Every structure is written in structure tokens, then in C-alpha cells.
Amino acid sequence: MSRGRKLKLGLFIQGAGHHVAGWRHPEAHSGSENFDLITQLAQKAEQAKLDMIFLADGLTTSAGSPPSVVARFEPITLLAALSTVTRRIGLAVTASTTYYDPFNLARLIASVDKLSDGRAAWNVVTTSTHEAALNFSAQDHLDHSLRYERAAEFVEVVKGLWDSWEQEPYIVNKETGEYIDKRKVHELNHKGKYFSVKGPLNVSQSPQGHPVIIQAGSSGPGQELAAQIGEVVFTAQQSYEDAQNFYSGLKGLLPKYGRPPEHVHILPGLFPVIGATEKEAREKYEQLQSFIDDSRAYDTLEERFEYDLRGYSLDDPVPDIPESSGRKSRPQLLMKLARDKGLTLRQLFREVAGARGHRIVVGTPIQLADHIQKWFEGYAADGFNIMPPYVPGGFDDFVEGVIPELQNRGLFRTDYEGSTLREHLGLPVPANRHSTVPTS
Amino acid sequence: MSRGRKLKLGLFIQGAGHHVAGWRHPEAHSGSENFDLITQLAQKAEQAKLDMIFLADGLTTSAGSPPSVVARFEPITLLAALSTVTRRIGLAVTASTTYYDPFNLARLIASVDKLSDGRAAWNVVTTSTHEAALNFSAQDHLDHSLRYERAAEFVEVVKGLWDSWEQEPYIVNKETGEYIDKRKVHELNHKGKYFSVKGPLNVSQSPQGHPVIIQAGSSGPGQELAAQIGEVVFTAQQSYEDAQNFYSGLKGLLPKYGRPPEHVHILPGLFPVIGATEKEAREKYEQLQSFIDDSRAYDTLEERFEYDLRGYSLDDPVPDIPESSGRKSRPQLLMKLARDKGLTLRQLFREVAGARGHRIVVGTPIQLADHIQKWFEGYAADGFNIMPPYVPGGFDDFVEGVIPELQNRGLFRTDYEGSTLREHLGLPVPANRHSTVPTS
Fold first, then answer.
1. Rounded mean pLDDT, A61-72
2. CA nearest B70 in A: which residue?
3. CATH of domain A8-277+359-425
4. Where is the Luciferase-like domain (chains A, B) (predicted)?
């Protein structure tokens, strides 16, 4: 069926789970700033042989955020800590090209990659909320297209810095006093529109060469950047057909950048609600939805759309909402969902509060596996980023029910084949632009 | 003698040790990017009940750096990783106010403080080398006085952000749906010369309230900043008399800021070379010095003084070297040392290569303890930041020989009294500027 193509799976760890009120589930633990719980989730994901855990980020305590992520560990430091309590699983972290400096960020991520012996990934985002600018001494948030222009140059600089060091630079000969092979250390001397960076970086390469690059923008400029630099693409897709179109569209952009299709893995988010029977699963979903506090609807919708909807009743049909210069693709996806299903504002809020626009699948482990297999074999996805509604139970259900079923069907690995994230994902170690010295 | 005043000790972990050629010692291990060795050192320091481990930083791969720190883990991520393999010891990290943004840095350090349950400290530096500017898209490095002006505002913003959250903000009531007590979360709304930051931060407080602030500049503006914000002052002092003068001078500045003397601990660096006999210690030191490669002298001196001395022979006496706008106090200290001892450039380089201007003490464990006791009881120091010449043996000698002697003399603890770094150091939890809500 899939000519050796294997499903890729991530665990998206966030607060008390992805459902806005998942923390109110009787079995839910509070995941806010709770390192023991996060460790437990990461280790469970590793036992299940997932490709990676994935951490999002936010630069504000937005009123529209789920309460369990209003305060959180800064994700790069969290990932560094998780590198010591895991051994094989990939470690993906989100960081903004708009509010970091490329030298600092290149170092931070490379350092996690070294600490974990080659398991790090960087999810490149440009930050969508205007509010963030106010925490960074900026009058205005950069416009969408300029953010993507800056992001492209930022990534170019970061990758250049990651190439500062060729593999195996250490000599450490106590007799001769030679410590480093200086022929393997290179300046970058980048001079561009946004950045001038001399280099070299002061962290050497991990066994995977560069951290894996993830891209999560699904707008036009986002897809173009993904095709250029993304090795994993995280996306929100509601329907099989839309996902197939996105998949073939993005893979179709790759030849322009000389990249083969198997070097980019497209992973939609998947929000699973699992029960022993379909009825039990549906009841669990209804229970989660019953915990939602509708008084947060206006804040949440304003955060999503950057538009104040307080002039409307929550029971009005979703009106036309003008496009902001913040997020692009997600509001479009949500508007399409609202139109297709004829939603009211309250119903739209409840969709957003559930899975933030990601696909919700409610059912038995078999039904979940069927969904995953259909999308995977139909080239709507190369895998999924799993978003448990609450933790740890919502993820335990997936690991104990769905993973064995996927393994039985030959779709998912039963053990890791390698030790780096690039090895898990079947991605090559990037050729170093400077490598002229033969590796000893 | 000391009215309950107790010695404070840090372990300064750097590369393969602090001697430029310490890595060539037969017993030395290579500490570059070697997490297992760093873990071993941190755990040994914790077994010895030291107050903290201390990590420096550098933003370039300078030609004048010891070869074992040309590449290194980024220290904030390293500290986050170390938080999981230690339980009690403080974790201090250096970060630059010139090349970070206050919101990002406040988050990173607060996050390590949360991960470690209140054991983090931030060593505030302004970055002295011009070279760093070239990695950060800056044409010119900020002048010394402007760097300190920016640093003071930067620290004000960071401390303001750390006050965003009062203690115990979580309610997490599944019945009522209340997750956070919003009365305990505050905006900052800082608007200053360098920064505008709205807040709140999106990390809550650790049990110690704020990470401890360390300051390491010993110039005029550096001392002023230390008196204003420093809770630990790391300094280089060569002689007992100079150290006493520095100590009384700095403590004398504290009343101006309404701070009692016991809220600032002055810790000079101490580079110990230890043998069972004085003769053995001296031979060990001579052996270390014999490993120094004089061909690195010009690079090292240029890096220290930001001045090219290639016009002189290494056997010329140290000439007058003009002051740069980079480092201030360390070049002055080294020039004074050169004049006092009538050093040649080669001899000056060899002092710098050994301990970078910090006090070298060569002797038996008893002699080391005598030195420490004299400086401590004579109010030349509140303790020391220990800089082993090579690792792990150079630190093992200190832990196995000197620590028990200090404990026998009643100068140093035999167990931790508390669990946070503030508790180890006898520092109060800072009063939160917003705290009007009684803690539940």
C-alpha cells in the first residue's frame, strides 16, 4: 500500500490538555507549570515510540487563551529539562522569528539539540497576535507579509549559523595541545535586509547536523515558506478533501525548491476523544463540551479573529468578519467551517474551545485507527500531531487503544529504528555548506 | 567571630576547567559540550553542600578564549537540564542585558526558577567585547556607560515582570470552573528610555519569589549597579587589602539604596591548586603552567585589553595600554598586578591564562582553608566562587580536602538548611509590589 512509507506521530503537549475546559474532566490533572506531569506524558509518548513531542508557545497572557496556558514554562527551557528524562523521542519547540534574535535562538535550539544528542526540532512561527508587540518595546506588530519576509531571512541566518561547525571538530590531543580543528569552524558573514551576523556560532553540531525545521503557517506565504524550509508541516485540516488538497498543493510546491516529497511530512492536528464504544466516546465529548464557560466566548473569538464581536448575540449566525493582519489561514478555516455547518457564534466558539479548529474525532480506538489510516493512505496526511483533550487520561486512551491497532495494521513502528529525530523521520543530515575537510 | 555569618561557596563550571591549558593535565577530562561531566560536577558540588553552581557565558568564539569554551552549551538551556539532575543546589546563569530582550530573558530565567523549585540566579552582565555586536546586527557595541544605563532599566523591567504574579495564583476548582485568581496577575505597563513592556509575564513565581540577582561588574558603574540590585557580587580580587577595600566600599554604597549589608554577598573568584604538601601543589601548578602555549599570548591579551600588542616582544615589560570602552575593572586590575610585580607581557599572559586575573592559591587543603578563613573573617569576602584549574580532579581536591576542613572549623554548613537558593544565601523573598490580596 504505502511502499515503506510509515506514519509519523507527534504528541502536542499543552497545559491541562487541548480542550479549553479539559482540566475540569474528573480524571484530568492540572498540567500548568507541572514538570512531573509533563515528564510523565513525554515518557509515555516515548514508550509508545512516537516521533516527537511538540510544544507550542505564546508571548502573552491573552484573555482568549485556555486558562491552563496563561502561565507556562518557557518551552525551550522545558525542552532542555525534558531532554534529560527521555532518551529517544524527538523534542520540538515553537519559537518566534519576530520576537527573537537569530543568534540567540540559533544557540538555544542548537544547545537543546546537543543536550539531547540530536533530537531537537524548531517550529518556526512568526507570531500572529498584535498584543505580543506590546511586550517587546514595539509600537506595531509587523505586517503579515513582512513577518514572513523576516522569517525567511531569519531561518537562512539560523541555518547558516548551524553550519558554522562541521562534524567532529574536536582533536583534544594533550601531547600536541591541539583542541579544535580550526578548519572545521567557519564564519557566516551574513548581511541582509533584517540581519547582519558574522558568526561562527559557539555551539557545535549534534549527530543530526541541524535541528529539524517545522513550519506551521498554512496561509499562502506560510505554505511557500513551508515548501522552502519545512521538514515537518503542522496544519489544521477539517475535512479529508481539504486535507488532500492542502497535501497535494504543498507537495506540488517542492520541486521549485529542488526538494523531494518525502523530505516534508505533513501532520494535521488530531483531537481524539476515545471510548470503549462510540456511545461512550460521544458521552465523553458531550461532557467535555458541558464544561465550557460561554462567558469566555467573546474574548476567545476576539483573540482568534482579532475582531470584537460583542455587538452580536452569541445566538446570531456567524457574521462576515474582516481579515486581520495577524493570523490568516486559521480564521479562514474557521469561517469556512461556520459557513459549511451554518454555525452561530456560540457554536463557533464551542468548536474553537474544543480543538481550536483542528479535526475532532470521537469514537472507539478502531474508529480512530480507521480515520488515521484513511487520511494516511489517501495522501491527506503523512501522520498526525495528537492533541489530547485532557491529560494524562486523554493521551493514555490513545496510547493504549489506538497505537497497538496502528502497529497491528503495520502502519506504525514497534520500536525506534535510529536515535536522532532525523532518523525517526527518515530525513537526511543536511550537507554542510563548508564541508571540504574529509571527516576523520 | 562572625555572629552566625556563614561562608557562601559557588562552583564556577567552565569548559575543561579555568586554566587555559588545564585540559592537558593527565587527569583532566574534556568538559566541552559534555553534559555527563557537567552533571558529575554539579552533583559533587551538591554533595559538598555548596550554595550554587555558576555558569558564565560568551557570545562569540573569540580567538582569545580558552579552547575548551569556544563551543559550549548555551548556559540557560544547560541550567534547565541540570535542574533535573540536582535537587538542592542553586543554579546561577550569566546573560547579557545588551543582547537580550527583557521579556524573553525574564521568561527564560523565571522558567528555570520554576523548573528547579526556586533555585535559579541570574548573573547580570552587559557584555564587554565589541565582537559580540557583529553577531547581533549591531554596527557598534554600546558604550560602557550606556550599557550600564540600559542594564539598570533592563533589570527594573525583568523584576517588574517577575512581580506580575503573586504567590499561589492557582485555584483550579473543577466545580466552579475557576482556574486562576485573576486578582493575583498584574500588568507592568513599563515605558522607559530603552523598553516599553506591558506584561504580565506568562510564567508564575517560584517558591523563592524572584531568582537571585548576581552582578559581576567591578568598575564604578558596575559597583553602583551592584549596590542597587546585586544580591551576590562576583568579583576578581588579587590581594587581601584590595579585597577589603572593595568589600567595605561596596557595602558602604548599600545604605543609599536602603539595603542592609547582609543582603549582598561578595564572592571573589578563587583558583585553587591543591596538593598533599605545598611542594606537590607547587609542582602541580608549574606543570599546568608548562602546558601553556605562548603563541596564543597576543590573541589572549588583545581579547582582554581590546588592544593589539603585536608591536612588542613578549619579553618586553608591560607597556601603558589605553582604556577601551569594553571591560573596565579587569584590565585595571591586571595592569596593577603587572606594575606591582614588574611583569613582562609573557608573564602577564601567563597570569591571565591561568586564572584570568582571579586570585590563584597554591597549597595544601589546610593552607586553602586558612586563606578562605582569613578573607572571610577579615571582611574581604563573604565567600568564594571556586574556579578549579581542571576537571573533575581539580574540584575533587577541593571537595575532599578543603570542604571538610571548613566544616570542622565551623565556617561552612554540613547540610542545607532550606530548599531554595534564597534560603541557602539567607536572602529574603522580595516583597511583591502588588501584594494586596492576602495569601490563602
1. 82
2. A202
3. 3.20.20.30
4. 20-377
